[in-house]
Structures are given as C-alpha cells and as structure tokens.
Design goal:
4-stranded antiparallel β-sheet, 505 residues, 1% helix, globular, 39 strands, 5-stranded mixed β-sheet, mainly beta
Length: 505
C-alpha cells in the first residue's frame, strides 16, 4: 500500500509496505505561537524514524527544505508492536531545532490507529524561578532564549510529560500542567502537602510523584489523568522520612529518604520503592550505607543512586535487592539515563576546577570521561574615582559542581545546572600595606547547554550571582559582570531542577 501525504502540522498516513498489517494515521501538532513555533523558519531537513521495541531502527526517511504547510511524503513505513515514531527537524548547520516522538504503537492486522506527535523546539525547563523558566536550545548566545511561562507562582520543581505536550510543575503548594503549545497553565490544579524537593513523571505519563523534605515529609502521588479530568482527589500522600530525589517507572516510585543535607558526609539515606496504584508507608526501605543525592531509573525499572561521599553510583534492582556499585567518578553529583547509557556528572576542585561528564553502557563497559572547561566570571570594580574609568577582574572557578543533568533528544547536547565558587586573594600595593584589589568571593548558579562533541557550552545562562569582598582595599566596591559568551536570566533565582522535552529520565 502507498502512504498518503498531508501538510506539515496536519496529518500523514503511515502504512505497511505489503500485506494487511494495519495502518497508522500520524497527526503532527506544531504550535504557531511566536517563540514556540518549530517551523518559524524553514527546516533544512525533516527526518522520520521508526524504532522497534528492541531499540533498533527499522525505517528512516528524510525530506529536504521543509516549511509550514509543505506536503509530507515519507513513503511506506513498516508497522508492528511497540513501534516508536520520531521526527527530527534540523537547521542548515545540522543542529536539531524541532523534535517530536509518538508513544509506542501496537497495530493489529487490519486496524487503523491514530497517533499524535507533538513537534516542539528543544526546550529545557528550570524550576526554582518566580515562574517556569523555558530555555530554547535552538537559539544562539545573545538571543533572548530564556523566557518565563506562567505557572501560578514560584516553581519548586518541574518534569516534562513523555509525550512532549506539557510540563508538570509544582508552584507553591499546588501541582498543575503547563502546555508546551502555549506556555500557559491548562486544566485544574491540585493541592499538595507543600513545595516539592523533586518531581518525576512515569514513562507512560499517568503518574507524577513529588517528594517533600520539610514537614510533613513524604511523597505526593498525582494521578495525572484524574488531575486533567478535574477529579476531586487526584493526589495521594505517603508519609516517609525527609524526601529527596525521586524517579518513577510505570508502576513504582523510587524515593531517596533523608538525603545528603550538607557538605559534611553525615547520616545514612534509604531508598524506598512505593507502588503507584496502591501507595503505602509500609513499603520496605533499603539502607544505602551513606548519604545519597541524585536518582534515576533504567528502562527495566532498576534504580541508580548517587552516593557523593563514596564517589559512586549504585544500582538497586528491586525492593529487596542489595545496592551494588556500577561506576565510580570523582566528585559524582548527578545521574541520568539516555540512549542505553548511564550519564554522570563529577567535578575536580582547586586550581583549574572543572566539571566532568562520564557515560557508560547500561549493561556495563568502559567509561567515557569528558572534562569540561574551567568556567570564568568577571567582577567589575565600581569604586573608581574617575567615572570614565572601568575595571574588570577575570576570575576562574575554585569549586564547582553540577546538581542536575538531562540529555537532550538529539543525543548531541546535555543540559546541566551547576554552582561555582570563585575566590581571589588580595593583590597589588597601593602603599602603606593597602592592597589594590581585596580578597573577593563570588558564588554563581547557572544553566549550561553542553555540546558533547567538544565539551563547550552552546548556551551559558547565569541565574544568580553574589559577590563579597574584604573592605579597606583601594578598590572597595565590586559587582558581578558577565563573562564572554554568558547570558543573564530575566530574573535572579537559585535553580532547583531542570527537565528537557523528550529528554533523558
């Protein structure tokens, strides 16, 4: 059978090449709103890929010079069980600027199935801001690529829905969904026990789980279908120890209890597996042998837990399993899973302090380690007597650490949140023992979009900067200035988490 074509942002019929195995009608949804439209500029290429349940590519086809309204003719695509369809649109540079993925499809013989694919710009969303901060990964440094999306208040955590249609956010003490087509809140909101420490969504998009570190400590399990339907009680609360990182499978919420709470390696965290359909505080807890930080899950449902003080990521295969080390990285801090690999951030402090990015196959194997460049900042002297004079002090990081990570769906970029400390000693002699430049300490938080082939930042967005200095030097007042290639968030805030559309878990 021959496939019929439709205009982009309309529908395209995808059918099997022979016999009568069934057909799939794929409806492509692409927002037309300014700043959100992935087709605002013509795409140099648009590639349709079909992937089977084993992760093997069974079909791909590419169209060239595609614009909104252009007809699509991808040809005949084999269909079957658990087939995933992806669309990736690239600019002339090869950078992916539009992406969408349909949920896995099961097509019975003779049946016709419609699937919806939400084609979107490669957005990453940040929690911790006065509203939801949306960062457009298709834009260049200097562009206005970071904007606020109204979420009903300050966002403590955010997690993208697997189908790309929305982002679940916790704003204040309520959970709601923000549409990725409009960047506006949609549907009802539901009250939670308090702000979230972390938030995760199940791969099937049915459940959202928020952890709460402050009293009342525990987890809130949100039935997203019920939330969208406006049900009266879509949230179940389970009391646990202080809630830290969470990660979710289709049927289980993994939660770190009593997570690492300071720079000192004190206490012992536990990992708890809670059934989503029948949540209970009686779920068994697994001792982790030390304080734990970040958490991720593998496609087969195992938990990967960061033990920062041990420099390890451990794997827990089930509620009764014993944690076993899978990778060791100096300064390990954040973990995620993407493209059948484990991705881990680490750091090296002191002279030329820098972040590292390690990855390894899920089934085990050699670790690939990428050292990221040492970050730089600028301090501006604002106490010069001559208003026409100015002075910028270049500072390099002495301490740095990433605390959240997501691999973008293009497989070529990684989004990270990091904190860094910059320290300078007094220098220069103004006479009488007075230094020209005082001892300065700067603390920054920033988002980076890192290119995996080079380790360089394609985007570097500073969200917060504080600066202090010892009084009495000739230059006695300083302010944070931007480093080359660095941009500033539209409002200052300390980020708490990030989530990438169609990104890693």
């Amino acid at each position: 059978m021959a496939g019929r074509s439709r205009a982009l942002a309309g529908a395209v019929l995808v059918v099997a090449a022979c016999g009568d195995p069934g057909a799939v009608s794929l409806r492509i949804d692409a927002p037309a709103a300014p700043g959100l439209d992935p087709l605002a500029e013509p795409l140099a290429s648009l590639t349709l890929t079909a992937v089977d349940a084993a992760g093997a590519t069974v079909y791909d086809a590419t169209l060239r010079d595609v614009a909104r309204g252009a007809p699509l003719a991808f040809g005949d695509v084999p269909v079957g069980e658990a087939l995933t369809l992806e669309l990736a649109g690239a600019a002339a540079s090869g950078r992916v600027v539009a992406y969408g993925r349909a949920a896995p499809l099961d097509v019975a013989p003779g049946a016709e199935v419609e699937a919806v694919l939400h084609l979107r710009r490669p957005f990453t969303y940040l929690g911790g801001a006065p509203e939801l901060l949306a960062v457009d990964g298709s834009r260049q440094p200097g562009d206005a690529y970071a904007t606020f999306a109204p979420a009903g208040g300050a966002v403590s955590a955010a997690a993208a829905l697997p189908d790309g249609a929305g982002v679940v956010v916790v704003a204040g003490d309520a959970v709601r969904v923000v549409s990725t087509a409009t960047h506006e809140a949609e549907g009802a909101a539901a009250a939670l026990a308090g702000p979230a420490d972390d938030l995760a969504v199940s791969p099937d998009g049915r459940w959202a789980v928020a952890s709460h570190r402050a009293d009342p400590a525990g987890v809130s399990i949100v039935d997203l279908d019920a939330l969208r339907a406006g049900a009266a009680a879509p949230v179940a609360f389970v009391a646990t120890g202080a809630g830290g990182a969470v990660a979710v499978t289709d049927d289980t919420a993994w939660v770190v209890e009593d997570p690492l709470a300071s720079l000192f390696c004190e206490g012992t965290s536990r990992l708890r597996a809670i059934a989503l359909a029948a949540p209970s505080a009686d779920a068994p807890a697994i001792a982790l042998g030390g304080p734990a930080g970040d958490l991720a899950v593998t496609p087969d449902g195992a938990a990967l837990v960061v033990l920062p003080c041990a420099g390890q990521v451990v794997r827990v295969d089930g509620p009764d399993a014993t944690p076993r080390p899978v990778v060791e990285v100096a300064g390990v801090s954040a973990v995620t899973v993407a493209r059948d690999r484990v991705w881990v951030t680490g750091h090296v402090d002191g002279v030329d302090a820098h972040l590292t990015l390690a990855s390894m196959p899920l089934e085990g194997g050699p670790v690939e380690l990428l050292a990221l460049p040492t970050t730089e900042e600028r301090a501006e002297a604002i106490s010069l007597s001559d208003p026409t004079q100015g002075g910028l002090l270049r500072m390099t990081a002495d301490l740095s650490s990433a605390f959240d990570i997501a691999v973008l769906p293009d497989g070529a970029h990684v989004a990270i949140l990091m904190a860094a400390v910059y320290v300078t000693e007094p220098s220069g002699d103004a006479g009488g023992g007075q230094p020209i430049i005082p001892a300065i300490t700067m603390v920054t938080y920033e988002f980076q979009l890192v290119q995996l082939d080079t380790g360089l930042a394609a985007q570097r967005l500073r969200t917060s900067c504080t600066i202090e200095w010892e009084p009495g030097a000739l230059l006695d007042a300083f302010a944070c200035a931007r480093a080359p290639g660095q941009d500033e968030a539209p409002a200052a805030f300390v980020p708490t988490s990030l989530t990438a559309l169609y990104g890693s878990r």
